[in-house]
Design brief:
It is a single chain. About 0% of the residues lie in helices and about 50% in strands. The chain contains no helices and 11 strands. The strands form 2 sheets. Strands 2, 4, 5, 6, 9, 10 and 11 form a 7-stranded mixed beta sheet that branches. A 4-stranded antiparallel beta sheet has the order 1-3-8-7, with no helix packed on it. It starts with a strand and ends with a strand.
Length: about 110
């Protein structure tokens, strides 16, 4: 059974940082492209960052320069380092394996507020 378990969300002040982790099981992690998506209240889910199995990365313009995606194949884990957080970054952040049509985690809430 495939499981993607996100962690690291929480409440942070504007300008702060968080690191999200997503631990995968039930898949051969190293062959999957991985991604982080987010969904803010009243908005559609959007891609934040992706990393291919070879390590190539994509970061959405809205978070470029502030967010970094990385992966550790030995730990079956993908990370999202989020710096200089803004209130508009508030959302539920979801981990994905294999693209939108494949596997999803249940999400972790990130709230940016003073």
């Amino acid at each position: 059974q495939v499981q993607l378990v996100e962690s690291g969300g929480g409440l942070v002040q504007p300008g702060g940082s968080l690191r999200l982790s997503c631990a995968a099981s039930g898949i051969i992690f190293s062959i999957y492209d991985m991604g982080w998506y987010r969904q803010a209240p009243g908005k559609q889910r959007e891609v934040v960052a992706t990393i291919t199995r070879s390590g190539s990365t994509y970061v959405a313009d809205s978070v470029k320069g502030r967010y970094t995606i990385s992966r550790d194949n030995a730990k079956n884990t993908v990370y999202l380092q989020m710096n200089s957080l803004k209130p508009e970054d508030t959302a539920v952040y979801y981990c994905n394996a294999g693209g939108p049509g494949k596997y999803w985690g249940k999400g972790t809430l990130v709230t940016v507020s003073s």
